[in-house]
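Note to self: keep these together.
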Amino acid sequence: MERAERWKAKYKVERVKDTLNDIREDMGKRYEAAIAEAGAMEGKVKEVINTAGVSTALYVSYLLV
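Structure:
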């Protein structure tokens, strides 16, 4: 029983909410940076496969956007 009680205390909804609120801004910044990096990488991939003469019919769908 002691283990279950410790788990319940550690994972109280209020405690988890407070923790997430504390890190939310940093999480958003990291997400935005990752999305920008992924977009830049997709652009470079398009350049390379265009240079190689790959037909757009063979592109993966997310590169067509």
